[in-house]
Specification:
This protein is α+β, with helices and mostly antiparallel strands and about 230 residues long. The protein is built from six helices and eight strands. The relative contact order is 0.13. This is GNAT family N-acetyltransferase.
Length: about 230
């Protein structure tokens, strides 16, 4: 399979609705952001340089086969992959890995543009089995976690990670946190979470600061990065 890669930007919103169809099917409701957040992320990329946001789409011919989104956070020189999914109608071994490798490459380009040799690490969240609603979601959850482990990510066990509620009225969500580096201390991981909460969940998602502070406290993490 030869994949053609494109990026969605405000100047190129081609097939964004098809991406949202795959997105809605691929993820449980608890970890699905409102679609407006994707547009807010594009805004963020313009106003928070050298931080960045990548919205990657893969095509085979004219058919959309995969997508991935991710942020680069310069303060810690890390990538944060938000979503990655493949078209369920496409059966191609290795498509997910190719998409992951490509989004990692783009985030590493952002790190280099910010004056670094390369990314320090890439982090991502995945669902735990206790939040799924049916056997199909459970199977997808297991596959997703195994996929990241096969591709060099390890689960962070030092902290019981919590994702803040993505939709008004929702509760916070316990998730697995994965990282693709082995030589990272707990102190560094705490810093990464603090920055993710500030840049992603405060500035992009615009979640109430008191909600974010409460989630950090539940993880035993001091709030030193959220704006007052």
């Amino acid at each position: 399979m030869t994949i053609r890669w494109e990026e969605i930007t405000y100047d190129n919103l081609t097939n964004i609705e098809k991406v949202f169809e795959i997105y809605d099917e691929a993820f449980p409701i608890e970890v699905r952001e409102p679609q407006d957040i994707f547009y807010q992320s594009l805004d963020y990329a313009k106003t928070r340089l050298p931080n960045g946001f990548r919205f990657l789409v893969g095509y085979e011919g004219e058919q959309l086969v995969s997508f991935a989104t991710g942020h680069y956070f310069a303060e810690a020189n890390i990538g944060f992959i938000v979503y990655i999914a493949t078209n369920p109608l496409i059966r191609s071994k290795g498509l997910g890995t190719k998409t992951l490798v490509k989004i990692e490459e783009l985030l590493n380009e952002d790190a280099i543009s910010a004056g670094n040799v390369s990314l320090r690490a890439t982090i991502l969240e995945t669902e735990k089995q206790e939040i799924v609603h049916n056997e199909a979601e459970k199977e997808d959850c297991i596959k997703r976690n195994r996929f990241f482990e096969r591709n060099g990510y390890k689960k962070i066990d030092e902290i019981q990670y919590i994702q803040p509620p993505l939709n008004n009225g929702d509760s916070n969500v316990p998730l697995n946190l994965f990282i693709n580096k082995n030589d990272v201390s707990k102190e560094e991981i705490i810093k990464y979470i603090q920055i993710i909460y500030k840049e992603k969940y405060c500035f992009v998602n615009r979640i109430d600061k008191q909600v974010l502070k409460s989630c950090l406290e539940m993880m035993g993490i001091e709030n030193v990065h959220l704006p007052s």
